[in-house]
Amino acid sequence: MTAFYWTIFLLAALCRKTGGQFLDLKNITARDAFLSGTLPDGFLWGTATAAFQIEGGWDSGEKGPSIWDWYSHLPQNVPWGDVATDSYHKYKEDVQMHVNTSLNSYRFSISWPRLFPDGTNTTINQYGVDYYNNLINELQNNGIEPLVTLYHWDLPQKLKERYGGWVNDTLVEMFENYARFCFTTFGDRVKYWTTFNEPWSFVAALGDFNNDPDYTMKYKMAHNVIRAHARAWHTYDDDFRSAQNGSVGIVISSIWGEPADLHNPADRQAATNYMEFFFGWFANPIIGNGDYPDVMKRMVRESRLKQNQTVSPLPEFTEEEKMYNKGTTDFLGINTYTARIISATNETQTCHPDNHNFASACGFMPDLMGVKETVGPGWFYMGSNIFWFAPWNIRGILHFVRERYRYTKPFYLSEVGIGETYKYHSPPNLNDTWRMCFYMTYANEALKAVKLDGVDLRGFYAWTLMDNVEWGSGPDLAFGLYHTNFTHPSRKRTPKRSQGLYGSIARENGFPDNAIHVRMTREWWQWCHMDEAYAPTRHGYVEPTNKPAPCPSVSTAPAAQSLMFTGILGILVVLVAFCSP
Ligand code: BGC
C-alpha cells in the first residue's frame, strides 16, 4: 500500500513538473468570458515606441548611423527612418498624445548612436543628450513615468563595421559603457530601465544583418547579449541603485506555445521545448539557473552531431559566469502578440510548420527537434500572418514563466498590439474597430492574469503610440493608436477611434462595472471574437463604414463565477481521484 501512495505522489510531482506550467485554457467558453474589475493601484498604462521607428533626425546634430540607417539606405530600400514620425522634433506632441490618452507611462528607447556616434564614449553628441533630457523632463512635467529601453535594435553602424556587431566579445564592454553613461546622465529621473528589447528577434530573426545560415554566429551573438545584459544590471546594482533607487529589467518576447493536447505528456514536452528555445534561450540564464536550458544544450549538440559537426556552436558559460548571470533582473518585460499550437513529432525531425498558411518561427530554431507548429482551427490573423488573434496567450505565457522558472518578481506587458496592412498614401483608417476589439480583449486578459491567476503584473504598454516605421515594411504595416500622415512633411498625427477606447481603459484602470467602455465592451464582446472583426486588417485600406461594430444585444458569456466554479470543481475532482483508495 505504501508503494501505491509513493507512486501516486511521484506521479503527482511529475505531473506538476511537466503540466503545472500550462494553464488549462481549452474550455473556450470559460477562456473567452469577459471579466469586470480593475487592475491594482499604481498600474502603469502606456504606449511603447522605438528610436529608429519614430525619431527621424537620422543625421541631426552629430548622430552616427545605426545598422538600420545603413540598411534603409541600401539602393533597394526606402529610407523611411530618416524622418520617421519626426519625434526628434515633435517629442512634446508625443507627450501630449499620452496626456490626451490618459496614460501614466511611456516606454521609449534611446538610440545608442545618437549619444555615442561611433558607439564608444570617445565622442558624445551633446545634441542627443539634450534631446533625451528634454523628453524625460517633458514627461516628468506631465506626470508620465518613463520606462527606458537601452537597446531596441539600432546598433551603431561603426561597431558593426569595426567588430562585426554582437558576435564580438568587445561589445559587452561597449554596452556597459553606454549603459553607465545613461544611468549617470538620466538616472536621477528614470526609475525603470530595460537593457534589451526582444533579443530573440534581433539575434535569431535579424542576426545584425549578417549572413549566418548555420547559426554559429547567432549563438555567439546571443551569448554576448546575455553577458552585456548581466554586466549592465550589475553596473546599476553596484554603482547606482542605492542613490537612484530604480530598477533594471529586460524585455523578452515570445509567441505562446500552447500544447495541442494538454493531457498528452509528449505534446506538453514539445511545447516546453519550443518555449525553451524561444523564451528560455534568454530567460533561463537570467531568471533560471544562470545557464542555457538543458534541452537546448542537448538538442543543439545532437542536431549538429548528425551533421558531423562535433563541436556544439552553443557557447558555454563558465561556472562563474552562471553565478553572475543568475537573478540579473528586477522585473521582466514581456512582449507578446500571438500564439501557436505545438504538438510532438519524432525527435529525428526538426521543428516544422504544419502547413504554410502562417508564418512559422521554426525556421529560426534550426536545432529544435520533435516539434510541429501550427495555428488553431478558427483562429484569425491580423495584418500579417505572423500575428494571429489569441488574447489568452497573455495568461498562458505569464503563468508559464512564473511556474517554470519559479519567477516571483513583477511583470510588465511591455508590448501588446495589432497592425493592419496599409498603404501610407491612402486615406487613414480612423474607424479602427478591429483595434478597439483587440484592446478590449487583450487588456481584459491582463486583468484575468491578475485576478484569476494571481500574477504580479504591473503595467500594460500598447504597441504603439502612432503609425511608425515598421522596420523593413516601412509605414505599410500600421500599429498606431494615432494615424501618422507619411505624405506630409510634418508627419501630422490624428487620433483613431481606438485611442479613445484605450484611453478609457487606462483612465478607469481596467474594466470597472460602471465605466462606459465596459458597457460597450460587453456589447461588442461576441463580435470581437469573430474573424470578421479583424478582416479589414488584412485587406489594406477599406472605406470606413462609420457604423459601430454590428453587435446587437449579445448575451455575455458566463463570467468569473463560472471560471471559479470550474476551478473549484476541478480541484475537487483531483482531490477525490488522489484520495480514493
Ligand atoms: C518589436 C517592434 C515591432 C513590433 C511589431 C515587436 O517585436 O519590438 O519594434 O514594431 O514587434 O512588429
TrEMBL record:
Which N-terminal residues, if any, form the signal peptide? 1-20
Q: Which residues cross the membrane?
A: 559-579
**What superkingdom heads the lineage?**
Eukaryota
UniProt keyword annotations, A-Z = Glycosidase, Hydrolase, Membrane, Signal, Transmembrane, Transmembrane helix
Molecular function (GO) terms for this protein are: hydrolase activity, hydrolyzing O-glycosyl compounds
Gene Ontology BP terms: carbohydrate metabolic process
Pfam families given for it? Glyco_hydro_1
Q: Which family does it belong to?
A: Belongs to the glycosyl hydrolase 1 family.
Q: Which PANTHER family match?
A: GLYCOSYL HYDROLASE, LP05116P
Protein name as annotated: Lactase-phlorizin hydrolase-like isoform X2
